[in-house]
Amino acid sequence: MDLFAQLQGMKVLLVEDDQWVRDSLRRFFANENCVLMVVETGEDGLEIVKNHDCDIIITDYRLPGMDGLEFLKRAQELNPRFKKILLTAYMSEAVISEAFRLGVHEFIEKPFSMEDMEEALCRVLEKKVLVNGDCHKGQGG
């Protein structure tokens, strides 16, 4: 079963203030028939988390208002079960340390490719359930 077949039916939330990244990932997921909820701020993301049981949350670290780690902390109080992926161009020891403390499962350093996103999602899904076979779309091994 490939990555996107596994993602179908899951609720994935992207919190990202960069319009280009939001649009690119929205198209990427739509091309694979997967639903991606997209918001610009942590505050908007919390509204989504209040009303939906998200399976995976992908958030940028640098956001207007609260940062991505504060968003994850608050979102976790509403629903502790989602998998967490942090996007950042500001990878520092302090950010990594706080992210690990909050249980972030994967980091994707900006700039990133869609392959980087696929690999991180695959690793998150492999941690969620034991998967037999290859998770990567269109790749062997």
Question: Can you tell me about this structure?
Answer:
This protein is of the alpha/beta class and 141 residues long. The chain has one domain: Response regulator (Rossmann fold, 3-Layer(aba) Sandwich), CATH 3.40.50. The protein is built from six helices and five strands; from the N terminus they run αβαβαβαβαβα. Strands 2-1-3-4-5 form a five-stranded parallel sheet, sandwiched between helices. β3, α4 and β4 form a beta-alpha-beta unit. It is globular. The two termini are 13 Å apart. The C terminus is likely disordered.
Write the CATH homologous superfamily.
Response regulator
Q: Which spans have pLDDT < 50 for at least 5 consecutive residues?
A: 137-141
Quickly name the level 1 CATH class. Alpha Beta
The global form is globular
Major β-sheet annotation: 5 strands, parallel
What average pLDDT do the residues reach? Answer: 89
Domains, number: 1
| Strand content bin | 15-25%
The CATH architecture classification is: 3-Layer(aba) Sandwich
SSE succession: HEHEHEHEHEH
Strand order of the largest sheet: 2-1-3-4-5
The CATH topology label is Rossmann fold
Features:
single chain; 141 residues; alpha/beta; Rossmann fold; 5-stranded parallel beta sheet; 45% helix; globular; disordered C terminus
